[in-house]
């Protein structure tokens, strides 16, 4: 890694300067501040990381800089933002437009929805380029292609003609970065650029940002909750909490000697690899969930008769079990079938093979069996915004499972909802808010609270903490752990964050292309990874230590082999061989 | 959702509605029209059916507004104002009841078909397609002619014809909603079909229902008039705003008041409901909280 | 694609069959006797009976319907009772005019309605928004006849910009299309506004703005194509409503379309013509819906033809 | 020979508009407002009328003879008359045409008019394919034998239905003769754009020398009457075929320049209310008379802007046989009430009034409704499409029908034309046009007697008819309400006698005799 301590532009005039910024939201109860009195400078070629609690106002701050706060309720209510000599806060929209993209660009937190679904990727790039440079279409296309090549998207020429939905999340994020790259802005704001990505792709993206900075001297405002990423990327760090700056300083200094109490907590909460503790013998508690040779296939139709011609073999012959009080983690790259297993376990996706949860077969669901299953198995979805009803207050949504299962009266249900909110680090005062009024991480917590409402026997948590800052993540993980111990809840934990996985799991399964390639206890997997794929995953994990030396791993082109096969094709199964007690590794793969 | 929670939500809605002047105007207009219709016998200066001897000129022309007849007289020398008051009854029944019924049928069918994709959905949607393939007016004419015209039959026919578009639109929307994760989330919480449909999908359809519902007021009122005009609608001398227009539309140059006032009445009725509907939609839209 | 088309066409055929059956049934039970219309006032009961037998109207319902279908399959839509000529030729002679008017009318509706909707959405809550939405109500509430005649009076008679009705040149088309456009624009305006308001909040619009695109480009290239989808589905629905509106407009502007043919046929229970016009309109509606479904994926690549 | 208008200049084109499309130009079938006069100009019958009048004159027949018993008519055909296709017309064509119109396959709405010709019944029942009573004596002589004397027979031979058509053209058209008419008339069809316009072209070989004056006539169909009037005012149209729309009537009359171009004329038309005499309460003559007294006819005439004259008997004033000194039932509400009380209906009753749904008929019905209410009769209105009203009338399910819109415009100017189908026993059967279902054997016999007289115009015959209608009025199965006056307009350049524009026979315009001045 490059030396982040080069204070190249620290002394020079800042490109971006924020002084005393305040942002407020108008509510029924009057103006409520979201961000208050934030000040910082950003120099050329510098990377400033904003870390901090989820919901602390990181995204709002960056949107305020871009002049893109969500209308009509949220507005800048004080302070000044300067870009070079230009005061952005008072700039008319028409002039602001000229600066956007040209001098400041932004990569948004949600890559899934930030690209126009009805325009090809190429057109969106070309358009951005031509908006700021008087280039011919052809020249702009060449430039766009170069940018896509630069972000190492596989087959860039073909991607130009594809639509966003044809790309995976990671690819889309790279397109967003390519766009920023092509524009060569002075300042790049990257809001959680890697949250949605699995570790291997995350690695790629971080490398790209660094390249961009090196070649164009771009100043980067990097927003992230991942202290590993901060340590690897940033020159300086701002730590935010509740809309205010807690601490600001050089990255080494902050990691080495945090001043603010919150920063200390934050750093203490960072899960680190290899700290998972010692091997513990497998528990003998009763099995809560048992999967035997589970297969899930999605039909793809085509041809004259609209018959099924191909199938996505999303899950292929997966077996494992989870005992009461045990946490089983599934890791693997994007698209390997993790979420599919999760959905199958709560009866949302039809499957072959058997899944038994608390002695109940998950299969064709009647209303009754679904209801009784829901009392024992709950899922926290990967995409929290999508999993919440945008038209219902979160309080009602958290209390809803209780209502469905006829528990308590209105008052007790509300009290329970308030209690759950509290447990996931939110306040009861927010019960009457709607989902869009929360930050990404807050929504995820709301989903967790809802899943916990019924105190189920099994919780399936699909990337449930990935959008959370480490301290909240730690709190949530603690909460999950406490619940697990208290009620002997079994948990299926899906994550791309190896450190978290190591932290929380009892057992781990590594998936690749719908199959498990390695399975074993935490100690076995992390201490003695056998399968080459497992090893590659581990190597890609960023380390939350600015001084750490990152091993060089080969960059890979972004397209992974796909699990689509012709109908009737026989997919070769991995043969799992025991290398130790309970540690199985695929032989052929 | 218990009654109490419902009250809490409606309380909030009502509180926010009250703060919108346009919504208040709309509600006042609706109330006025309803009252006018109910109190017509007491407010109306004349019997709406009486053909006044002095209501026509010597050459049989209607009298313009002013004078003894506030809004003028019609081609039979009847008091237009009184007829408009009584006509409000018919038009409210058509525009609100028949249109409401159409909306309800359309919503239920669209919702059911969109949600239960299986054979129920297929059957319902094919049926909707079939109904949609009819030229609406022709269907209405045939139905009304076969069933013998009367106000309630006309209302029924209009409901039967008008639900189709709503069903189609609701269907598309429901299919999209049903595929969303938060609906899947509801399933895993054990929510029953009814709950998912009415608590989670329906609220998302409200804006669309409001748009179609308010636009439907004008169209149904005019459809009734077309049917009357074709002899399969409400029978004379029963007034309705639509048929007053249709009876007199060829006279719109020589006696513009005969078209203008009932036309205005229809616009006001539709607009009043729309003001309320729009405000309701905005108030129910969480993304717009804090904008007023 | 081909498979999809074949399936859709098959479904359409079934729909048309259903339409033909229901219409035939409705006309069968209609309390009006076409024979009386044909036979005239001086007819003796004997005349009437012989005409009835000749037309096969004395047969049971299913026999009549079966015969009609059988002939229809061979491309024969029957002979008009009163015009004594081939229904197909009557309809074919008038169909081009109606289709032209329909296409132009829908075009006008879209241009007027979408513009109104987009402008209203962009200035949401402002005076112009309220004004436009008010206008949209006036247009949906306006009686067709009056609007048509008013336009004719102002632009053709008073100003002399266009011919007073008739058919043939593009100038003849302007006023009828405009009338239909104005009358139908309200629906589109409101649909468009709703959907535009929604899209303007979307993340990708924010991205587009973040790229520094001009306002016009953000709206036209990014928001509009996304917002227009529900409107496309509307067009399919609209064709059905259109068939009703076209009658009045055709008669005011002397437009030789099937609307007028249908009108006269309904008045005089000329069953073969009513059947023919119904089936042709049903075809138009079915095709319109099919087209809407085919166009949708062109605009939104996520929609896959199933 | 023909007396030509000295002011007439030949040549030019006029434009005539109609709202409804022209269904057919086949003279055996066409029976609409718009095609009646067109067919008259394309075809000729053996008999004809003096233009603008109701006076019979020979047409394709140069002369005719009637036998003593009035049963045999011998027509001498005009020599040298050629069809539009260039062939000379002969007696065979006359026979063919009469056979054709009475053949059941033709389904002619006028077939019934020929019922007096010997052999008609055999034709109607399908037993014969040719009329026994029509014989070709020589190429220029036709003899027609009747099965009973018929005073109106010559009028029947002047009807469009009796037009002479060439067999080969009919066969060539293969069922579409209505689209490709070939006749002997003053005009021939030059072009027909379905649904839009028809172009008539002067028949250069027309047998009436010097006629027609016009080179061409353009008919534009599908024209809303209001728009047609706007176009007339704009100089684009010469004659609005549907007349002046009621909504524009006052406007036109208020402008002296326009009013000067308005032509007013009588019509052989009566608007009446039928009272179904077979069902209570109209089975009591007192009730029917009471209704007759209850209707304020002046008010109804006022409603239609005075475009009619109140009527008191079935026959219109311009019809021979009209009883001029008859006063009818005067408008007298009190007397009507008294009569009702006499019938035991002092408290009135409820009934239904059927009416066709086009303006002004529903309005008239509402006026009638109000008048009835004044004597305690509650009539609910059924405003329906024409076909439905006719159906209800024929089936006898309608207690009262206002005849407007479907009213009896005479087919030919003879008093008998108002009796047979609409007041006689023949029409009273299920499905007939006698909506009162009035059937009085005595009156029927008197009518038959009057029609069996040989000369239609003898004063005795007209007196007999007058008696028939007076007896009808005594029984009061109808309420005659008014006789409509026709008001039409023409462009300034139109020439010719005003009567031509309100021709009682060649309704609405006699195209053969009008001309343009410019
Ligand atoms: N449209 C809105 N209306 C009201 N409150 C909002 C709105 N958007 C965000 N907030 C509030 O503003 C605060 C800051 O949100 P922001 O999105 O900046 O958080 P964040 O620091 O980016 O968190 P995360 O890491 O979870 O994305 C949160 O408490 C959130 O509830
Ligand atoms: N409804 C569907 N129809 C067809 N294919 C699908 C469907 N849902 C998922 N897939 C495919 O199944 C495979 C597994 O998807 P899944 O969502 O389980 O991946 P994942 O491991 O959860 O990935 P990520 O980490 O990105 O969430 C992918 O190739 C995906 O494209
Ligand atoms: Mg954020
Ligand atoms: Mg997933
Ligand atoms: Ni493998």
UniProtKB/TrEMBL annotation, chain A:
<dbReference type="InterPro" id="IPR050388">
    <property type="entry name" value="ABC_Ni/Peptide_Import"/>
</dbReference>
<keyword id="KW-0997">Cell inner membrane</keyword>
<dbReference type="Pfam" id="PF08352">
    <property type="entry name" value="oligo_HPY"/>
</dbReference>
<feature type="domain" description="ABC transporter">
    <location>
        <begin position="16"/>
        <end position="267"/>
    </location>
</feature>
<keyword id="KW-0547">Nucleotide-binding</keyword>
<dbReference type="GO" id="GO:0005886">
    <property type="term" value="C:plasma membrane"/>
</dbReference>
<keyword id="KW-1278">Translocase</keyword>
<dbReference type="Pfam" id="PF00005">
    <property type="entry name" value="ABC_tran"/>
</dbReference>
<protein>
    <submittedName>
        <fullName>Peptide/nickel transport system ATP-binding protein</fullName>
    </submittedName>
</protein>
<keyword id="KW-0472">Membrane</keyword>
<dbReference type="GO" id="GO:0005524">
    <property type="term" value="F:ATP binding"/>
</dbReference>
<dbReference type="InterPro" id="IPR003439">
    <property type="entry name" value="ABC_transporter-like_ATP-bd"/>
</dbReference>
<keyword id="KW-1003">Cell membrane</keyword>
<dbReference type="GO" id="GO:0055085">
    <property type="term" value="P:transmembrane transport"/>
</dbReference>
<dbReference type="GO" id="GO:0015833">
    <property type="term" value="P:peptide transport"/>
</dbReference>
TrEMBL record, chain B:
<keyword id="KW-1133">Transmembrane helix</keyword>
<keyword id="KW-0571">Peptide transport</keyword>
<feature type="transmembrane region" description="Helical">
    <location>
        <begin position="93"/>
        <end position="116"/>
    </location>
</feature>
<feature type="transmembrane region" description="Helical">
    <location>
        <begin position="257"/>
        <end position="276"/>
    </location>
</feature>
<feature type="transmembrane region" description="Helical">
    <location>
        <begin position="21"/>
        <end position="43"/>
    </location>
</feature>
<dbReference type="InterPro" id="IPR035906">
    <property type="entry name" value="MetI-like_sf"/>
</dbReference>
<keyword id="KW-1003">Cell membrane</keyword>
<dbReference type="InterPro" id="IPR025966">
    <property type="entry name" value="OppC_N"/>
</dbReference>
<keyword id="KW-0472">Membrane</keyword>
<protein>
    <submittedName>
        <fullName>Peptide/nickel transport system permease protein</fullName>
    </submittedName>
</protein>
<dbReference type="Pfam" id="PF12911">
    <property type="entry name" value="OppC_N"/>
</dbReference>
<keyword id="KW-0813">Transport</keyword>
<feature type="transmembrane region" description="Helical">
    <location>
        <begin position="205"/>
        <end position="230"/>
    </location>
</feature>
<keyword id="KW-0653">Protein transport</keyword>
<feature type="transmembrane region" description="Helical">
    <location>
        <begin position="63"/>
        <end position="81"/>
    </location>
</feature>
TrEMBL record, chain C:
<dbReference type="InterPro" id="IPR000515">
    <property type="entry name" value="MetI-like"/>
</dbReference>
<keyword id="KW-1003">Cell membrane</keyword>
<dbReference type="GO" id="GO:0005886">
    <property type="term" value="C:plasma membrane"/>
</dbReference>
<keyword id="KW-0472">Membrane</keyword>
<comment type="similarity">
    <text>Belongs to the binding-protein-dependent transport system permease family.</text>
</comment>
<feature type="transmembrane region" description="Helical">
    <location>
        <begin position="12"/>
        <end position="30"/>
    </location>
</feature>
<dbReference type="GO" id="GO:0055085">
    <property type="term" value="P:transmembrane transport"/>
</dbReference>
<keyword id="KW-1133">Transmembrane helix</keyword>
<feature type="transmembrane region" description="Helical">
    <location>
        <begin position="170"/>
        <end position="189"/>
    </location>
</feature>
<keyword id="KW-0813">Transport</keyword>
<feature type="transmembrane region" description="Helical">
    <location>
        <begin position="99"/>
        <end position="123"/>
    </location>
</feature>
<feature type="transmembrane region" description="Helical">
    <location>
        <begin position="227"/>
        <end position="253"/>
    </location>
</feature>
<dbReference type="Pfam" id="PF19300">
    <property type="entry name" value="BPD_transp_1_N"/>
</dbReference>
<protein>
    <submittedName>
        <fullName>Peptide/nickel transport system permease protein</fullName>
    </submittedName>
</protein>
<feature type="transmembrane region" description="Helical">
    <location>
        <begin position="273"/>
        <end position="296"/>
    </location>
</feature>
């Amino acid at each position: 890694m490059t030396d982040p301590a080069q204070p190249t532009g620290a002394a020079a005039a800042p490109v971006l300067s924020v002084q005393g910024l305040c942002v407020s939201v108008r509510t029924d109860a009057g103006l409520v501040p979201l961000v208050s009195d934030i000040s910082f400078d950003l120099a050329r070629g510098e990377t400033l990381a904003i870390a901090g609690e989820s919901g602390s106002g990181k995204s709002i701050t960056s949107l305020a800089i871009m002049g893109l706060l969500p209308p009509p309720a949220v507005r800048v209510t004080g302070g000044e933002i300067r870009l070079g000599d230009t005061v952005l806060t008072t700039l008319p929209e028409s002039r602001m437009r000229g600066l956007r993209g040209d001098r400041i660009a932004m990569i948004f937190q949600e890559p899934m929805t930030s690209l126009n679904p009805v325009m090809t990727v190429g057109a969106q790039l070309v358009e951005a380029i031509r908006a700021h440079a008087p280039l011919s279409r052809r020249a702009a296309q060449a430039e766009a292609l170069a940018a896509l090549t630069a972000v190492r998207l596989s087959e860039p020429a073909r991607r130009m003609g594809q639509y966003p939905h044809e790309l995976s999340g990671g690819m889309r994020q790279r397109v967003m970065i390519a766009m920023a790259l092509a524009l060569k802005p002075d300042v790049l704001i990257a809001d959680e650029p890697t949250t949605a990505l699995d570790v291997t792709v995350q690695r790629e993206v971080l490398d790209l940002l660094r390249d961009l900075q090196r070649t164009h001297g771009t100043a980067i405002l990097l927003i992230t909750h991942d202290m590993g990423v901060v340590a690897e990327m940033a020159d300086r760090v701002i730590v935010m909490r509740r809309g205010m700056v807690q601490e600001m300083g050089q990255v080494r200094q902050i990691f080495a000697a945090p001043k603010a109490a919150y920063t200390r907590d934050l750093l203490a909460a960072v899960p680190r690899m290899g700290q998972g503790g010692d091997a513990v013998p497998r528990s003998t508690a009763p099995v809560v969930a048992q999967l035997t040779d589970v297969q899930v296939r999605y039909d793809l139709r085509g041809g004259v008769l609209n018959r099924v011609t191909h199938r996505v073999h999303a899950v292929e012959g997966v077996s494992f079990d989870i005992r009461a009080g045990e946490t089983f983690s599934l890791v693997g790259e994007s698209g390997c079938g993790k979420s599919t297993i999760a959905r199958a376990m709560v009866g949302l996706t039809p499957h072959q093979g058997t899944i038994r949860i608390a002695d109940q077969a998950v299969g064709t669901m009647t209303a009754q069996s679904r209801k009784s299953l829901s009392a024992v198995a709950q899922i926290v979805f990967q995409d929290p915004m999508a999993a919440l009803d945008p038209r219902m207050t979160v309080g009602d949504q958290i209390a809803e499972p209780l209502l469905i299962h006829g528990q308590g009266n209105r008052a007790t249900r509300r009290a329970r909802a308030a209690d759950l909110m509290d447990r996931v680090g939110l306040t009861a005062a927010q019960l009457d808010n709607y989902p869009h009024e929360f930050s990404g991480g807050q929504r995820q917590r709301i989903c967790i609270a809802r899943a916990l409402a019924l105190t189920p026997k099994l919780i399936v948590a699909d990337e449930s903490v990935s959008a959370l800052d480490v301290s909240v993540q730690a709190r949530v993980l603690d909460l999950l752990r406490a619940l697990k111990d208290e009620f002997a809840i079994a948990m299926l934990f899906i994550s791309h964050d190896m450190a978290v996985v190591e932290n929380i799991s009892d057992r781990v399964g590594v998936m690749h292309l719908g199959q498990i390639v390695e399975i074993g206890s935490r100690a076995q997997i992390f201490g003695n990874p056998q399968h080459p794929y497992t090893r590659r995953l581990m190597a890609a994990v960023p380390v939350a230590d600015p001084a750490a030396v990152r091993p060089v791993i080969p960059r890979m082109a972004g397209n992974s082999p796909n699990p689509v096969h012709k109908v009737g094709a026989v997919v070769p199964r991995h043969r799992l061989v025991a290398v130790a007690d309970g540690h199985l590794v695929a032989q052929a793969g | 959702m218990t009654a109490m929670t419902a009250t809490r939500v409606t309380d909030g809605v009502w509180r926010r509605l009250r703060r919108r002047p346009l919504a208040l105007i709309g509600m006042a207009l609706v109330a006025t029209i309803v009252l006018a219709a109910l109190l017509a016998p007491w407010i109306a200066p004349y019997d709406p059916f009486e053909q006044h001897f002095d209501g026509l000129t010597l050459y049989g022309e209607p009298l313009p507004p002013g004078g003894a007849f506030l809004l003028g007289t019609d081609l039979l020398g009847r008091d237009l104002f009184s007829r408009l008051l009584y006509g409000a009854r018919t038009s409210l029944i058509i525009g609100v009841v028949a249109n409401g019924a159409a909306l309800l049928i359309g919503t239920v069918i669209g919702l059911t078909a969109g949600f239960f994709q299986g054979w129920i959905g297929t059957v319902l949607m094919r049926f909707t397609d079939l109904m949609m393939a009819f030229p609406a007016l022709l269907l209405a004419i045939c139905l009304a002619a076969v069933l013998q015209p009367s106000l309630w039959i006309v209302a029924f026919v209009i409901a039967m014809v008008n639900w189709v578009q709503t069903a189609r639109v609701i269907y598309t929307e429901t299919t999209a909603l049903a595929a969303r994760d938060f609906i899947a989330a509801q399933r895993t919480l054990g929510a029953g079909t009814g709950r998912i449909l009415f608590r989670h999908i329906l609220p998302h359809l409200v804006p669309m229902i409001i748009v179609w519902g308010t636009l439907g007021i004008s169209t149904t009122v005019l459809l009734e008039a077309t049917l009357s005009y074709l002899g399969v609608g409400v029978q004379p001398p029963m007034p309705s705003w639509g048929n007053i227009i249709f009876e007199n539309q060829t006279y719109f140059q020589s006696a513009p008041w005969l078209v203008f006032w009932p036309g205005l009445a229809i616009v006001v009725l539709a607009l009043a409901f729309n003001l309320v509907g729009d405000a309701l939609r905005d108030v129910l839209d969480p993304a717009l909280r804090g904008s007023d | 694609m081909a498979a999809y088309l074949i399936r859709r066409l098959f479904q359409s055929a079934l729909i048309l069959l259903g339409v033909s059956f229901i219409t035939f049934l409705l006309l069968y039970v209609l309390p009006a006797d076409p024979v009386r219309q044909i036979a005239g006032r001086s007819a003796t009961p004997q005349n009437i009976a012989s005409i009835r037998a000749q037309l096969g109207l004395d047969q049971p319902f299913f026999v009549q319907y079966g015969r009609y279908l059988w002939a229809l399959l061979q491309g024969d839509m029957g002979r008009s009772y009163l015009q004594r000529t081939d229904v197909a030729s009557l309809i074919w002679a008038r169909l081009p005019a109606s289709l032209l008017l329909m296409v132009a009318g829908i075009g006008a509706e879209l241009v007027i309605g979408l513009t109104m909707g987009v402008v209203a959405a962009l200035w949401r809550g402002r005076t112009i928004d309220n004004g436009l939405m008010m206008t949209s109500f006036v247009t949906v509430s306006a009686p067709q006849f009056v609007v048509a005649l008013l336009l004719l009076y102002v632009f053709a008679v008073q100003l002399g910009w266009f011919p007073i009705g008739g058919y043939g040149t593009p100038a003849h088309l302007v006023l009828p299309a405009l009338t239909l456009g104005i009358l139908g624009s309200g629906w589109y305006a409101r649909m468009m506004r709703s959907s535009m308001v929604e899209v303007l909040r979307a993340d990708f619009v924010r991205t587009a703005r973040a790229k520094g695109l001009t306002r016009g480009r953000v709206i036209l290239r990014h928001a509009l194509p996304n917002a227009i989808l529900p409107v496309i589905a509307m067009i399919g629905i609209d064709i059905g409503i259109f068939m009703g509106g076209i009658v009045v407009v055709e008669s005011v502007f002397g437009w030789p379309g099937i609307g007028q043919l249908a009108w006269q046929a309904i008045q005089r229970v000329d069953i073969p013509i009513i059947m023919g016009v119904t089936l042709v309109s049903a075809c138009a509606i079915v095709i319109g819906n099919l087209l809407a479904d085919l166009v949708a994926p062109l605009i939104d690549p996520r929609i896959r033809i199933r | 020979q023909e007396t030509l208008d000295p002011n007439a200049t030949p040549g030019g084109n006029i434009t005539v508009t109609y709202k409804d499309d022209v269904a057919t130009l086949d003279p055996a079938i066409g029976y609409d407002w718009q095609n009646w006069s067109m067919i008259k100009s394309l075809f000729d019958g053996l008999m004809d009328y003096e233009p603008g009048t109701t006076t019979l004159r020979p047409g394709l027949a140069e002369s005719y003879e009637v036998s003593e018993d009035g049963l045999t008519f011998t027509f001498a055909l005009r020599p040298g008359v050629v069809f539009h296709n260039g062939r000379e017309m002969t007696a065979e064509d006359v026979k063919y045409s009469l056979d054709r119109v009475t053949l059941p396959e033709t389904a002619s709405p006028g077939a019934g008019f020929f019922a007096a010709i010997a052999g008609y019944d055999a034709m109607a029942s399908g037993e014969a394919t040719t009329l026994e009573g029509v014989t070709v004596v020589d190429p220029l002589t036709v003899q027609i034998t009747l099965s009973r004397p018929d005073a109106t027979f010559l009028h029947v031979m002047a009807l469009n239905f009796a037009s002479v058509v060439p067999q080969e053209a009919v066969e060539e058209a293969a069922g579409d003769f209505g689209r490709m008419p070939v006749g002997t008339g003053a005009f021939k069809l030059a072009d027909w754009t379905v649904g839009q316009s028809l172009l008539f072209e002067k028949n250069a070989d027309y047998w009436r020398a010097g006629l027609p004056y016009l080179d061409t006539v353009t008919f534009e169909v599908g024209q809303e009457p209001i728009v047609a009037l706007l176009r007339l005012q704009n100089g684009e149209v010469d004659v609005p075929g549907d007349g002046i729309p009621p909504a524009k009537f006052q406007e036109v009359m208020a402008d002296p320049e326009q009013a000067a171009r308005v032509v007013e004329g009588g019509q052989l038309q009566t608007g009446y209310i039928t009272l179904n005499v077979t069902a209570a309460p109209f089975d009591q003559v007192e009730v029917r008379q009471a209704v007759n007294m209850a209707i304020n006819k002046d008010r109804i005439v006022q409603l239609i802007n005075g475009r009619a004259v109140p009527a008191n008997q079935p026959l219109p004033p311009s019809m021979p046989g009209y009883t001029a000194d008859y006063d009818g039932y005067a408008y007298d509400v009190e007397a009507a009430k008294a009569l009702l009380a006499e019938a035991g209906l002092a408290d009135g009753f409820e009934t239904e009034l059927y009416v066709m749904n086009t303006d002004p008929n529903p309005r008239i019905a509402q006026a009638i409704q109000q008048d009835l209410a004044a004597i305690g009769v509650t009539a609910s209105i059924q405003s329906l499409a024409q076909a439905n009203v006719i159906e209800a009338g024929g089936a006898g399910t309608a207690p009262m029908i206002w005849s407007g819109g479907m009213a009896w415009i005479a087919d030919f100017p003879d008093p008998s034309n108002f009796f047979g189908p609409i007041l006689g026993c023949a029409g009273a059967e299920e499905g007939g046009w006698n909506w009162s279902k009035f059937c009085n054997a005595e009156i029927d016999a008197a009518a038959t007697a009057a029609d069996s007289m040989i000369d239609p115009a003898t004063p005795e015959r007209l007196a007999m008819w007058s008696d028939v209608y007076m007896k009808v009025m005594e029984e009061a199965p109808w309420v005659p309400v008014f006789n409509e006056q026709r008001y039409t307009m023409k462009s300034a350049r139109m020439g010719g006698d005003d009567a031509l524009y309100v021709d009682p026979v060649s309704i609405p315009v006699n195209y053969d005799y009008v001309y343009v001045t410019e």
